[in-house]
Design goal:
- This protein is mainly alpha-helical.
- It has a single domain, classed as P1 Nuclease.
- 52% of the residues lie in helices and 4% in strands.
- The chain is built from twelve helices and two strands, in the order αααααααββααααα.
- A two-stranded antiparallel sheet has the order 1-2.
- Helix 1 crosses helix 7 and helix 6 packs antiparallel against helix 7.
- The longest helix is centred in the middle third of the chain and has 17 residues.
- The chain is globular.
- The two termini are 33 Å apart.
- 35% of the residues are buried.
Length: 225
């Protein structure tokens, strides 16, 4: 099974879930509360790390946390997620999000199945926004790239998982999430809502190309940070 490290630490997942909850439509928020009540959970942040917690018991889920889009491609190859190339047998984070979205939409599905789908979606949507979980440079998603960050030896993947938040001195996670919410413009929010899991993977991949010192072509076509 893949040895890819976790994408985002618990802090990052909880903050992402806090932000997502701020933008739920009232009817959707009510459905989410009903599902969370099945396990007496109070909010999305409370279930945001569940998919990591169960990885050792449900090893078939390991590949659902990332997608290997090759950093080095032949000239002229679109710099984007390609399902046939990057997600064989639907065994990647993009396909996993799409599958569990389908379960969530199925009102005839058992509540516990829909709750599990919700927990997977909350987690995987954060994972697909971790640039190094959407790129393949033959280095285990940046885990084999060693560097010094904040005076400590670590890996490139770990910096994106938790180092950036550590450097930000987050403190209260809920307060930090609300601080980030205040920087989201209506135009940016509308743009994000039009996106699909494949779009998100492509955006993360193009950012990863910049992290690895991507070409001028990659820089010119990257989404704004």
């Amino acid at each position: 099974m893949p040895s890819r490290a976790l994408a985002w630490g618990g802090e990052g997942h909880r903050i992402a879930a806090e932000i997502a909850e701020q933008y739920l439509e009232p009817e959707v928020a009510e459905h989410v509360r009903e599902l969370l009540a099945v396990e007496n959970a109070t909010n999305l942040a409370a279930v945001s790390t569940w998919a990591d917690d169960i990885r050792s018991q449900r090893r078939e889920t390991a590949r659902w946390h990332f997608v290997n889009i090759p950093i080095h491609t032949p000239p002229g190859t679109p710099l984007a997620y390609d399902a046939a190339r990057d997600c064989p047998q639907g065994d990647c984070v993009v396909a996993a999000i799409e599958r569990f979205e389908g379960v969530l939409r199925d009102k005839a599905a058992p509540p516990r199945d829909r709750l599990e789908a919700l927990k997977f979606v909350v987690h995987f949507v954060a994972d697909v926004h971790q640039p190094l979980d959407c790129a393949d440079d033959q280095d285990s998603g940046g885990n084999d790239e060693r560097l010094i960050f904040l005076g400590r030896q670590t890996s490139l993947h770990a910096v994106w998982d938790s180092g950036i938040l550590e450097a930000a001195s987050v403190g209260d996670e809920s307060a930090y999430a609300l601080h980030l919410v205040q920087s989201i413009t209506p135009a940016r929010l509308a743009e994000w809502r039009r996106g699909s899991p494949a779009d998100w993977a492509t955006e993360s991949y193009r950012i990863a190309r910049l992290i690895y010192g991507g070409s001028h072509e990659a820089r010119a076509t990257s989404f704004p940070l």
